[in-house]
Structures are given as structure tokens and as C-alpha cells.
Amino acid sequence: MAERFGGYQNEIYLHGLGGTKPPFTTDPVRLAESAREVVSPEAYDYVAGGAGSGATMVANRAAFDRWKLVPRMLTDATARDTSATVLGATLPAPVLLAPVGVQSIVHQDGELATARAAAALGLPMILSTASSRTIEEVAGASGDGPRWFQLYWPNDSDVCASMLTRAKAAGYSTLVVTLDTWTLAWRPRDLDRAYLPFLKGEGLATPLSDPAFRALLEKAPEDDMPSAILRWVSLFTGTDHSWEHLPFLREHWDGPIVLKGIQHVDDARRAVDAGMDGIVVSNHGGRQVDGAIASLEALPPIANAVGDRIEVLFDSGVRTGADILKALALGAKAVLIGRPWVYGLGHAGEDGVRHVLRGLLADLDISLALTGHRSISEVGPESLHRS
Ligand SMILES: Cc1cc2nc3c(=O)[nH]c(=O)nc-3n(C[C@H](O)[C@H](O)[C@H](O)COP(=O)(O)O)c2cc1C
Ligand SMILES: CCCCC(=O)C(=O)O
């Protein structure tokens, strides 16, 4: 274990005796509001917003509220093990940083700060294709930390193969292929501001530095940025991939492949049939299909259908240690966290990401203890009650 996670609580309580004063709120509910004060209004709306009316974002949280934990007593949970094995690797906790693009809109250090914070805690960072720093720069910042690469699967096989080669060479172990954002959803908060961060060149560091992508351009991006941006947008949105195209990715990636954005049981089965290593049950934090099923509601039938044949990860709406326990009890191996640490990044860069994640991990450790579990593997359906 990288650190005794519950120890962050002691550090804070004992700040008068030389411990730590939290740099900003530890309250997951107040976190979003507090970030509003430290990032630009358009960046805040982009991060906090969802698709359409926001119904799926609300549903994601409501689904967590329908499940309650049922604590057990006198289990001697004084010594606990929060570690988890995910795709063959042992992690200090079943927690990963979800891929989040364009991080420079909330803090100038962007993905570099996030990579350092994740590495310090031993948690995998999943780097977005749409990052504001290149694959190689972020690898440098993450040092020995575990790193995965998220692919927005471009409509050009040379560009795709080139990015995968770069990611592999830079030490990314696992490929996460996001399937639910092949075109951008109707997002009223961004439309009202006519705000798309990519049009400022944010989030294009990896494609703009890619030799295969640059070979497609008549002029180098440095000489004609608008054309380069439009070319990128045309390659990465409106893509026409189908299940038959997955072998292409397998040919160009020799590590584990995880499909992100699975919500239907039959798609989960297809991922198994296609020989994929994992799936992320996710509705993209409610940012894509307004009115889509809550991610936590989609999880149990999918976990039951695929069993141990594929690793099931989960995201969308995870905010607390209790939420993590609920997702694990319903069949997830691990969870991805999105917005909370992005707010931390906006507050205080690397320290802010660390503060949010340490708080979440401490909460997980304490929740594990107080519900009577000694290890993550003990958490199961019997730990829950549906109300
Ligand atoms: C600002 C922002 C940018 C995102 N960018 C990406 C991305 O580049 N690739 C991706 O697969 N998912 C992206 N996501 C979705 C997250 O990976 C994740 O699915 C979602 O945030 C989980 O929900 P949560 O924010 O409620 O934790 C983004 C989410 C946010 C909030
Ligand atoms: C092409 C979209 C990349 C960012 C993203 O996934 C999001 O804003 O949700």
C-alpha cells in the first residue's frame, strides 16, 4: 500500500500539531461549487455540464442513493487492505483517474500536474487523446507511475496506428477505447457560450505533434492552425467504426484493451466475444446521451452477464468512499473518477488533485472499516440493501 489511506484524516485533525490544513473543501458536494470560484466561467460550465437537460447526470447520482450499505459489527477490521488487482496489476486501491481532455482550461500545468499527483499515489492515470500536453510529456511527468492511454479512434488508420505506437513507446500499458463520443452531444451550457475548447487548440497537443497527422496537412499547424484544427475535428468526430473493426486495434496494441462507454448487456457480451480484456460501464458522466440509463443501473445486469470473462470497470457519478463500495458490491472491479479531481486541479494544480484523491481514498478506507470489511475482496452484494 502506498500509504495508509485513512491517515489523511489524522493528518488533517492533527494539523495544529504539525499536520495538514486542507487547501480547500473535503466535502464532495461543495467541491464543484468551490471550483466555480477558481476557474473561468466557460471552463467551469464545460467540466460541470452534461448533455441536454442534464437528466442523466442527475440519474447517475440518484442511482447511488437507491442503494444503501449495511454495516457489520465486531469484524476486527483494524488492519485493512484496500488494494485491488486490475488487469493483472496490483493497485493500492480500486481507483483510476478517468480520461479527461483539455485539462489546461482549468490549470496551466494541465495533465502534467495530474500525472504527478496520480503517480505519487500509485493510481493509474488514463491520458486522453484530447490532452493539452503530448503523450510523451505526460509520460515524463508520471515517471514510474502506472499509465493508460485513452483513444478517440480516428477515421484514419495511419494516424491511429501512429498514436498507438507513440503511446506504447512512452510506456502506456493499457488502451482504453472510448466508444460513446464518436460525435459530441448536444451540450447547451457550451452552446450558450459558443465554447469548444478544441477550437483554441486546447486538447490537440497529441495529434498536432503526430507525424502521421501532420503528413495529412497541406501546411504545418504552426503556419495554418485553423486548417489543422478543422482536419482534426473531421478525423475524430463522426467516425464510422463498428465491431468488425476491433481487430485493427488488437493488431496495433499488444497490451490489454478496454472498451469505455458500455451500457447495454448485449454490447458487454460483444466485447467478450471480440476478445477484449475489459469494459468500462459508463455514460461519460452524463455528457453524451441525455436520458440514458444511470450508469450504476446498467452495472449489475452487465456484471452478471459477463461474469469473470472480462474485467468490468465503472464510472459516472462516483463521489465518495461509499459510492466506490456500492459499485464494487454491484460487480465492478474498480472505478474511474472524473470531475472531482478536475475541480482539485482547478483549485491548486498537482496539490489540488492530490488533496481530492487522498480524501477519496481515506474516505474509502474508513468506509471499508466501518462497514466491517477488511479487504476490497470482501465487498459483495450482501453488503448492500436496495431501498
Ligand atoms: C471535462 C471532461 C472531459 C472529459 N474528457 C474525456 C475524454 O477526453 N475521453 C474520455 O473517454 N472521457 C472523457 N470524459 C469522461 C470521463 O472519462 C468519465 O467518463 C466521466 O467524467 C465520469 O463521470 P464523473 O465525472 O461523474 O466521475 C470527460 C469528462 C469531463 C468531465
Ligand atoms: C471530443 C470530446 C473530448 C472531450 C470529452 O470527452 C468530453 O468533453 O466529454
UniProtKB/TrEMBL annotation:
Catalytic residues identified in the record? H284 (proton acceptor)
- CDD domains cross-referenced by the UniProt entry: LMO_FMN
**GO MF term set:** FMN binding; isomerase activity; oxidoreductase activity
Please state every residue range assigned to the domain named FMN hydroxy acid dehydrogenase.
Answer: 20-387
Q: Where does FMN bind?
A: P99, V100, G101, S128, Q150, T178, S282, D315, S316, G317, V318, R319, G338, R339
Determine if NADP is one of this entry's keywords.
no
Q: Which UniProt keywords are given for this protein, alphabetically ordered? A: Flavoprotein, FMN, Isomerase, Oxidoreductase
Summarize where glyoxylate binds, as residue positions. Y46, Y152, R187, K260, H284, R287
Family recorded in the similarity comment: Belongs to the FMN-dependent alpha-hydroxy acid dehydrogenase family.
Q: Give the protein's recorded name.
A: Isopentenyl diphosphate isomerase/L-lactate dehydrogenase-like FMN-dependent dehydrogenase
Species per Swiss-Prot/TrEMBL record = Amycolatopsis endophytica
